[in-house]
Amino acid sequence: MTPEQALAAAPAKAPAAVPVEGEAPEAFELDGQPMVRWTDAEGCTRVAHDRCPHRRAPLSAGYVADGVLRCRYHGWGFGGDGRCVDVPALGPEGRIPPRARLEVVPSEVPVTLPAAPTAGSWLDGDTPGLERFWHQACRLGELAPGASVETELLGTTWTLSLAADGATYSARTAEGAEPFAVQAHLDHLWLAPTAPLAPLPEVPEWGQDGWHLRRLSRAEGRFGVGLLLDNQLDAGHFAFVHTTTFGTPDAARLPESVVERDGTTVTCTMRVPIAARNLAVVEAEDDEPRSHRTMHYAFHAPLWLRLQLDYEEGLGSTILLFGFVPQGPGRARMDLDILFRRPEGFTEDQLDERLAFEEQVVAEDLHLQRLFHDLRLPLDPAAELHTKADRYSLTCRHLLRDLLAEAAATV
Ligand code: FES
Ligand SMILES: [Fe+2]
Questions:
Q1: Hey, which CATH number is domain 134-192, 1.10.10, 3.40.630, 2.20.25, 2.60.40?
Q2: How far apart are CA 271 and CA 13, in angstroms?
């Protein structure tokens, strides 16, 4: 059965009615630890760590609706006693993990809440083993013949150069060390510090007629490289994070998906409802144009992602190519190249509009990413809470954990 057949065979589910807006909770510090305060349904003030047990998003970025504190990332709702009362991705009858709860106290009582967990393995901008893979060092357009640029990768500054004849690329550290290899590929110069354990990703549509390439503005700075990746692997946040672009409350409940791990890639296919606010040809109900798209994720370990969006109603396809670059601890870069195609083609203005919309989508993601207190992505499954809606992200983490262990063992 193909992924499309499996999705077609899945039973239709009623959309969940989950609020996506409400009052803002309050962020504050207690003994140097980030905390959140809100008023529950009984009018009691409640205090908890500013960390969601699901993916550790700051709860202070969320909202309070009907006395329930909702996380801004995936909408998990927490009652006044700290218990999780709703996991929107699972729907109303979904099984909520018993451990899904916050340690909550009345704000008048001085108590010490348990500290954030620190054990386990993590993915960050300096994680050992990442040197055994290819990384996007710079865009080819940043290098003129005879010129050099500097880039940071895994805490090392590399000087990248293009020979005067425009044919040969090279890289070296300040100490004169050279990498195992550099290679021009897909509009980027890729660098492998040591012999890579996974091949460079291929994109058959690259340069093909009918596909139009545009490049999104680079994101760079205080970001968790693993968090940026995990964010883009995840469809459960659309209803809560993308409220001004394509997110719709109908998308709160995640549909069936097909996840497959093969070598150093993990794929996932799912069909999701979208608010087609930028696709004006779609009929509007309640002034909210709606449509569906099928999403084909292909994660190439450790830090590259292809996401193909096939729109319905003849609206064409978009392929998003994400390169996540580990610069150092708590520092990362994200380059995004986008291929657009639709049956009638595009004018330059239409392509500019499509790109501007994608910029807005990514800005919504980055806004929340900037608010995380801890920028590391845990690779130990016990460090966070998962539901069956997290299967894709979890399968990718298992692959990452296995590959990094293999890399560490073969250094
Ligand atoms: S619901 Fe809080 S991080 Fe997912
Ligand atoms: Fe997103």
A1: 2.20.25
A2: 12
